[in-house]
Amino acid sequence: MKLRTLTLGLLSASALAFAAHAESITIATVNNGDMVRMQKLTEDFTKANPDIQLNWVTLEENVLRERVTTDIATKGGQYDVMTIGTYEVPIWAKQSWLLPLDKLGDDYDAKDIIPAIAGGLSVDGKLYAAPFYGESSFVMYRKDLMDKAGLKMPDAPTWDFIKQAADKMTDRANGVNGVCLRGKAGWGENMAFLTAMSNSFGARWFDENWKPQFDQPEWKNTLQFYVDLMKADGPEGASSNGFNENLALFQQGKCGMWIDATVAASFVSDPKNSTVADKVGYALAPDNGLGKRGNWLWAWSLAIPAGTQKADAAEKFVSWATSKHYADLVASKEGWANAPPGTRSSLYANAEYQKAAPFAKMTLDSINAADPTHPTVKPVPYVGVQFVAIPEFQGLGTTVGQLFSAALAGQSSVDDALKQAQDAATAAMTEGGYIK
Amino acid sequence: MARAVTTQHKTIATVAAWIVALLIFFPILYTIITSFKSEQEAIQGFNLIPSGTFESYTEVQAQSGYFKFFFNSVLLSVGSTILALLVAIPAAWSMAFSPTKRTKDILMWMLSTKMMPAVAVLFPIYLIFRNFGLLDSRVGLMVMLMLINLPIVVWMLYTYFREIPGEILEAARMDGASLWNEIVYVLTPMAVPGIASTMLLNIILAWNEAFWTIRLTTTDAAPLTAFISSFSSPQGLFWAKLSAASTLAIAPILIMGWFSQKQLVRGLTFGAVK
């Protein structure tokens, strides 16, 4: 009896001691498929690290961005790990708001991270966020409609070819639009697409002295081409369409082509949700022969705010979630097609992954075709392919996005939209002290 | 003839009321319908007949425990309402029975705070919460929700109290009732219907408040608004799951509203014809 009491007492004491010692970290993330999958698989991490508990906060992308920005700027300390994008990382790292990730472990193999992705998440050669999944953009097209139009999609099409194919595939009587592109206003919506597209037309947001460039012919060519293409071959109400709206249209067979995030490939090729799953082909984003393609580069990444009190536990988690071991874990539980894409070179060298994901090669080629440090044909003072990595860009990008969305909706002319964009950008740059 | 016209007017008014009610309720109805569809069905255009699958509900519950958020919603809405009443009853009493020259101005000023966009004070409030250690705390959020809804609660109670004859309170005073007894044993019982409808409305407002409840919480104090927000996805069509999450979040308050509609309508229209 005494022995039993003593054993129970010891067990209770050790349980209490363990509970007191267990550290809980709070992770802020978005509700994307890959992130949700990670939450389901965390038992693997907590088994190996029983002294660390994980708390998840999942939020809508814009709310998440606002929440983590408020928290990090005020040193609120609400989160130990934050899911942020390629836009935030260089800005926040320069503000010393993020901790450098230099203790990811011996077997982490940081060199395996795709160089273009690692470049976008590093400042002065130091990695400030580990990529959870990465993406570029490419052309997804209907092979059957392309055959019907008597055309063959090249691996690296030009914008002229896209226009020609869109004209031929458009069949409004049967509800088929030749091309579906983003039109919804926002720096991460239509401006992600249009900024990447403008790179291939030789345009740039600012010259080397931060002077806005919307009054230059390259921007006029970009916007005019986009508006004309969408008016002739785009869906009705395109100025309200973002990623999800175009995804729905494509999955229902209402788009001949869709140029958007490479991560969409797993959705459109999923027979459970897509009516055209077996008819989809992939090609690089178009160019104009100027040396830059119209594709972007983005990575949802895990970063550790400088204000956290639990840096070691947080870094352990980041290391686990972005490791090769995690990709293997996903493959073993849910198949290779569900492994988080666009972060590690080793995944694309894996024959099983190539077999499970027919879009794998084109995704990697697209990512490699983007260079965030030299995004444009002419030189620029900023980094970022589909954004300009300065704090002012979120507000300015959305303002310009609204002007361009209005031009697409026919509420203003291309010339008016560009003139207003030039004025808005000049005002923002002057106020920010970039130009006098 | 007059009766015929009255009947005709009544019919037109009834039909118009039904049309307006259906228009208002339709988005909620369609959300409920969509929650019983598969994801593929949900994106395939307008369709009022779902396949009747419970798949989304199962996944929503598996993905993030509903009951933790539900418990927080109940605690925050009821707690903030009780706090609001504790502050508002004495405030409305003094304004209704001992008005000064500035009472109307004070009431207007209180109401004007509701006109300020919440985002304008996000940073100061966030910093105050951080400095007092109130981020992600139920107590902090209860106080915040109480403050947000206080102007409306004071206004509503003030309107009710004004309807109570001051002579009754005077009589109580003549009988030797203290201030406390006057409020608790005379005024409050007479104003029970008004207090009840104010309480119901405040619970609904607190339950639906999304700006602060999402921004000042992380895990421990997060209510159902944060639960819904977690199902909105920028990349991926999860409309059925989002609809299931929304249905689960609005169901309790919808049911409560249905059962208490008489009190609510009475409360909201009280004094409207005067």
UniProtKB/TrEMBL annotation, chain B:
Keywords: Cell membrane, Membrane, Transmembrane, Transmembrane helix, Transport. It is a multi-pass membrane protein. InterPro entries: BP-dep_ABC_trans_perm (IPR050901), MetI-like (IPR000515), MetI-like_sf (IPR035906). GO terms for biological process: transmembrane transport. PROSITE patterns: ABC_TM1. Residues 70-260 form the ABC transmembrane type-1 domain. SUPFAM superfamilies: MetI-like. It is found in: Cell membrane. GO terms for cellular component: plasma membrane. The keyword Membrane applies. The keyword rRNA-binding does not apply. The chain crosses the membrane at residues 12-33, 69-94, 106-129, 141-161, 182-207, 238-259. Signal peptide: none annotated. Belongs to the binding-protein-dependent transport system permease family. This is Sorbitol/mannitol transport system permease protein. It comes from Mesorhizobium sangaii. The lineage of its organism: Bacteria, Pseudomonadati, Pseudomonadota, Alphaproteobacteria, Hyphomicrobiales.
